[in-house]
Structure formats: structure tokens, C-alpha cells
Amino acid sequence: MQPLQHDDPRSIGTFRLQARIGAGGMATVYLGLSKGGRRAAVKVMHAEHASDPQARERLRREADAAAKAGDGYGAPFIEAAPEDETPWIATEFLPSVSVRDAVRRFGTMPAAQARSIAAGLAHALRSVHEAGIVHLDVKPGNVLLTDDGVRLVDFGTARELGDDGRTAAPAPAGTRGFMSPEQAEGARLGPAGDVYAFGATLAFACTGEPSTEDSSWPDDFADEGLRELAARCMAPDPSDRPTVPELIEQLAEADEPWTSDELEAAIAASAELPPAEPKASRRRVLLGFGAAAVLGGGAAALVPLGSEAERSNGRALPLERSAVAAAQERPSRLLTFQFTGDGPLISLTYTVNGEPTTLEDVELPWEETVEIPPLPEESTYHLEFEYPPGEIDMLISIDGFQVGTGEFLTIGTSSTSEVEGSG
Fold this sequence. Notes:
The structure is a single chain. The protein is an alpha+beta fold. The protein has 3 domains: 11-92, 2-Layer Sandwich (Phosphorylase Kinase, domain 1), CATH 3.30.200; 96-262, Transferase(Phosphotransferase), domain 1; 275-422, no CATH class. 27% of the residues lie in helices and 29% in strands. It has helices at residues 53-69, 99-106, 111-130, 181-184, 191-207, 224-233, 244-250, 261-269, 280-287, 308-312, 321-329, and strands spanning 11-12, 15-23, 27-34, 39-45, 77-81, 88-92, 96-98, 133-134, 143-146, 149-152, 159-160, 167-168, 188-189, 293-294, 333-341, 345-352, 355-362, 366-372, 380-387, 390-398, 401-410, 415-422. The strands form 6 sheets. Strands 1-2-3-4-6-5 form a 6-stranded antiparallel sheet, with helices on one face. A 5-stranded antiparallel sheet has the order 14-22-19-16-17, with no helix packed on it.
């Protein structure tokens, strides 16, 4: 979690807001506390979308779907106000680590762990489908690992199933790399679309990358049985994919614990409130690092780099004076920009100390390193980029020390964001 920023609201509805959980292109999610002391994840729509009737309708559908999906395998629904001047929705706060973050922080999952998580996700999908809903955005970032099992969250693209067991999507919506072919084409959809995304999520857990081609998966995929299962789930023809009950039956023997000591520690840390004045700021002052700021339509969470344990608790230690002195004696420093996620970027301009470079159709992952003067001379940077529907992750580092990260999400249309900082 991140501290509240100066322009964040301090309350919404009946909730007092305590911290930022995360942010995307449509909304910011806060940790809220009800008057009765109940902790909630409160998603608050960005002001620029509040005047869009379609955005309000999407939030209304999300609230309806979250309420119908039940509490067993999702985040229990609390309250929503899609008609308020600032629309919002509140669900129970779940201390957790997503499958996406678990893989990024701790590496790809061994077979027993991946199989156990897949079994939990299959049960979650059965619960959703039995409620007459198709999720349509199953992906690693929406699969949470909690103290009491796997939870599937974020019903922003969910649709009710009709009498024929399918639903019509008005336009392609979802996340590239985890959308079924029929969803990407805007065709009628059913539970088989979620099964495809289940397979892509399983592939990500085992390889670190989603893929539509079995042949592109690495040879050390967790085990052959899981490779075969993921490939069957991602069959181009929906009729060739297993059903959710078949997935549950196939994974019935998955009784190994999915957790680990490091995951349990990370889940516990996710419930901790950040300090009012993060200790990490001491380190940025010592190094002369300026925190990056989002200026455009996206949103980012920017954090410093400490040890893995320190990052999981939102803390970083100040460097020793000798480390600062050594940095000042180097002939130059290395400023590195990295982008991963759904791509390519439509355009990207990065400006370092007033020198711009513009690129078009930037394939991801992308990385560029630029030399900047040594300390104590300060350097400035500015990024402006346009990205397609989907999710983009950004990382900025100086001499290997992370000075900022960002997550940018847009659905249905491209967006442009800007980030700037100094160091």
C-alpha cells in the first residue's frame, strides 16, 4: 500500500480512506475504514470518467456482479454508489498477493503450487458461472492468494449469461494475452471464454509469460500435465476446451499447500498501513532521487527499491554515506527505463536532460539505458507514451536502484500518460 497523496479524498460515502491500494486508468482503489471498523477496498472512479454514462454503467454492472457472485471465492460486496457525483464501489479488503505479483517477486511456481492454485481458481469460476455471470477478465492480477485460499476479483467487465448460456459483449474488452479469440473479436461469449483465460493464467504462473502457442512455452514448464491442461484450455475453438466441472475433476487431487513462508509473509505485509511519512523518502533525499509523477490519463504506484523483505513492507533503508560518496565519484550514472505488458506502445518519447528521443510501435518488453552525470549534479527525465487497451508496467532505475514503478490500465481505447522525475 501507498500513503494517501495530497489530492486524494480523505473520505468517500461512509468510509474514511487510509491508504492507496492501487490505481488504474479508470479508478483508484483505497483502503477504507467504515464507521463500524470494517476494512474495505474502495474503488473510486477518476473524475474525468464520472461524466461518462458508459463508465458509470460499467461500475453499476461490476457492483451487481460482485453481489451475485457471492463471498466464497471473491471479495465480499459491501456497498456501491454508481450514481454519486464521484462513483465508487466497496468490497471487503483482503490481505493478499496476486498471482501476478507472486510470480514477479518470487519466480515461477512449482507444479504442486500451480496445481493447487489452479484448483482454487476453477472452484471460483464454478461459483461465478453458477451465479449466472461470466467474468471476462480472468488474469494473474485478478487472482488473489489470501490466508483462506484463492479469490477471484474485479468484475468490471463481467456480464450476465442469457438463457442460452452466453452473453453479448458490446465491444472487445478484457486484457490482451488473457482474452479468448472470440472475446477479442467481440463475439458472443460464454463460460468457455473464462476457461481460456484460466489456461493463460496457469501458463503465466508456470512460465512468467502468457502465450497462445504451446510451442512457445519453455521446456521447464512446471510439469507436462499442467502444460497439457493449459494448452487444452487455450484451444482456439471454444468447443474444444474443457468445461469448468471437468477442470475441477481433473484437479481434484491437488491437495498440496499452495502457500510458502515467503508468500505468507507477503500476505501479512499487505495488510500493514504505510507510515505517514515513508522512510523511503530519506533514501531519495540522500541520493537526490526525485519521485516520478503521473501527469496523464494513466495511474502509477511509485516505490523505491530495497531488499525484497523491505519492499514487501513498504520500507527502504537509507544508504550509508560511503555509498553516496562512491556514487559521486563515478564518471557517470546509468538511468534505465523499462516497459513490459500488453503492447506495442503506440508511441514513446523519453527526454533526459532536455534531449528528446521519439519512437513508434515500440514492441514490449522494451528497455533503454542512458548515461547521466554523476552526483551531485541533478538530471531530469520525462516520459510520454500512448498505449493500447490492456495493461502496461513501467520501471525506472538509476544505477540499478529502483526509483519508480507504474501500472497503467485502459479498456476499450488507447490512452496517453506522462511521467517525470529527477535524480
